[in-house]
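Q: I'm writing up a methods section and want to include an example of the input and output format. Could you take the sequence below and give the corresponding predicted structure tokens, formatted cleanly so I can copy it straight into the document?
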Amino acid sequence: MAESETRPYSGAPVEEQEFKDRNVVFCNHPLIQHKISLLRDENTGTNEFRKLVEEIARLEGYEALRDLPLEERRVKTPIAETFTPFIAGKKLCLVPILRAGLGMVEGLLSLVPTAKVGFIGMYRDETTHIPHEYYCKIPSPIEQRTIVVLDPMLATGGSACDAIEDIKKRGGVHIKFLCIIAAPEGLRKVTQAHPDVTVYVGHLDHQLNEKAYIVPGLGDAGDRIYGTK
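A: Here is the clean output for your methods example:
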């Protein structure tokens, strides 16, 4: 890249200010921002793209799982016995929205390998942009688990809202939503419909275009993860 094509980073997008009093966490760590920039590049190949999605999910996961409950158990070290903290309760359930959300699962499982994994399948009507569910299977009982819904892109917010609503209908209470890139329109919809759900965002982009794609975005995350078109 030529020197004229670079400039100092200007910091968080001004659009973030709208959500400062809502249940939103912007994951502005420099490593996350750098990796998202690599994702955006149209020259990033499928293998690298897939690895980046997993890495970003892992980095965001550190923040999203910060409040997992702990309990102390007795452990004998080579030196002495002591009580030390372990994750408590029914632990964690990951729920990727198919298919792009699958690309984030391994990143979270690398942090909590014992997590259960559910699945929600959605497809978007290309004319109306309305999401339709075709599959839902989550662990039961779900009431006491921390549930993290995964989808790289939060565009219109329709799929996210429907997925969260389905989980609530099945007894889910402690729900978080984790995405890599969000549009203001989608973030606005989710936070209004589900103010009790904490949303973790890697980067907030400018807007949606007429086809409901995020601008500047990164294209279709599912196609780029799996090499389809």
